[in-house]
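Q: Sequence in, structure out?
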Amino acid sequence: MLIFWWGIVLSKYIIKRLLYALLILVFVSFIIYLLMRSLPTSYIETVARAKSQQPGSKSFEEWMEQLSATYGMDKGIIPGFFSWCGRAIRGQFGDSWRWTVPVTQKFSDSVWLSFIMGGIAFIFEIMIAIPLGVVAATKQYSRTDYTITVVALACCSLPTFFLASLLKLVFCVRLKWFDLGGLIGRNFEQLSPGAQFADRAAHLVLPVCTLVLIGIGSLMRYTRTNMLEVLNADYIRTARAKGLSEKKVINHHAFRNTLIPLVTILGGSLPGLFSGALITETLFSIPGIGFVSYQSMVSGDIPFSMFYMTFLAILTLLGNLISDILYAVVDPRVRIA
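A: Exactly. Output:
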């Protein structure tokens, strides 16, 4: 009976949060649309100027009027936004101006590569940063703590372009273990399916290492700080006074409560798995969604930029909802009123 009541209350809570998230999404989408319409560069202007310079062509103004009507840019901000919302609800996001293919097709072609890279890096970050943060907290002011702190601060401080260039210099130029960039090697077509998979995986090693090294620093420091706060709590001293082993105190009491603030970070990391890594993908010539979205924005590709930014907004709201639900899982004191 208690489980049934808890399920009803949780369902009402989720529905309420989803309604709030929907309202927020509408306002965020409008702000994104307003910003996209205010871009200083426009793909329509570029195309209209190029076409107007052709022999015997129409004037720039005539081409602008024709292309604006074709792409729905002849409407005002409010009518244009509601027109975009109506098409978006039906799953019609139009064609990308920059890539001349449907927006969803270009997004699907590039996002999964970034998701694989981000997902692998995210798993390694958790496996490395959280245990090291716990070790640093349990051995406070020791050599181990100082070493982990120095490594964490170095990872937080190193710029992405410097770290990526350093890895390429060491492992590509000096040791010649990997190619300098790209997703496949020169002899990719002549390889067997298994060798092709290994070749792609080898080209992702350095980009993933870059993402991991850049990401573990802040998570290590955050874990250490929260673990120290928990270890100084009264109930931890009580557990030790009862004669519990230090291993049981750390694993069954302290670490569980350390997870509570970490849930917020891990839940908020969901958009990062799909947003791509612009600098890393550019330096290693990886055609992921980060590089594609950047090229779309600088060229004034409003359809693709609108879809991409709105997709990230949805993931952010979903990540916050997941974080709130996970609070009840890791902390039994949390109750929904």
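The chain is about 75% helix and 0% strand.
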